Amino acid sequence: MKVIVLIICSLISIPVAVNAEPLWNGRGRIVVSCDGNEHDWDDWAATSMNFAVLASQRLQDKLPLYIYSDHIWGSNQERSNVKGMCAYNHMRESAINGAANFGFNNTRLVCAVDNPEVAYNALRDEINKSSLENPLFIIAAGPMQVVGEGINRASREKRRFVTIISHSKWNNIHSDNPQKNFSWDNHSGWTFDEMVDAFSSSKGGKCKFVKIPDQNYNLQCDRKEFDWLRLSAARSCSYYKHGSWDWLYIRLESCAVKNGTYFDVSDTGMIVFLLTGDDRATPDVIRRLMEMPLYAK
């Protein structure tokens, strides 16, 4: 039975269905904005997996911009040293070597916390390139400040060709809801609801906003569900760079939770949703995507 989830964005009602037609049809571009430099660390794994999944579908030239460490208010307070590296450096490793290992040679990588203005304007510029024939899909995998400010600076006429995808309540509200138990975490900025209010109406440019179910339910799971990363024949496929799957597995290990027994690539669920229409992604769905080059002619 098909399950329909109604997403209400201001005056816009967008139905999102399990195994619905995917938003992605081969046209346009994809941009990701994620954090990982502060608070939750699952982005160390998800960023690495994002590159892998997009590469499995040969979308290297469809990802012009990847913004990482977009908790622009600071880094490393909660995780100053994990396996010899701070959170900032873990995200740098996942972004730079993720792009290199999976062939994203033309993707611009922007570390937002280093210079938020650069991140805002990079996203603005991608939005301003958008058209009916060249739409933009933004994966919002961190606090909404960078995404919101990028949209705010962009041409209102171009916003109608932009779709923003989110899944995390924490990300949606964090800009205006810093962690109260940390005196250093004091900030404000764009939230998901504020973006919907500002940009989804005709006056705001008719941006499309899609909120899918929290992907932690299926993609924060026993690490055994990712054993295929070490066993699949696709890991030796000539399409993939030698050693890239080993590197990917190590990145998943870097932020394993529950005493190292669970991996978490929850943000990758938004990539899967964009490409397939499946808003209940599992490790096996990711496996099938990543094994596709093995069978390509």
Short description:
This protein has 297 residues and is α/β, with parallel strands linked by helices. It has helices at residues 43-56, 87-101, 116-128, 145-153, 169-173, 192-199, 216-219, 228-231, 244-254, 268-276, 283-290, 292-295; strands spanning 4-9, 12-17, 29-34, 65-68, 108-111, 136-141, 162-166, 208-211, 220-222, 262-264. It contains twelve helices and ten strands.
User: What string, H for helix and E for strand, traces the elements in order?
Assistant: EEEHEHEHEHEHHEHEHHEHHH
Give the CATH class: Alpha Beta
The main pleated sheet reads as:
6 strands, parallel
Instruction: List the uncertain runs.
Output: 1-18
Oligomeric grouping of the chains: single chain
Provide the CATH topology: Inosine-uridine Nucleoside N-ribohydrolase, Chain A
- Strand proportion: 15-25%
Number of domains: 1
Task: For this entry, give a set of tags.
12 helices, 297 residues, alpha/beta, Inosine-uridine Nucleoside N-ribohydrolase, Chain A, globular
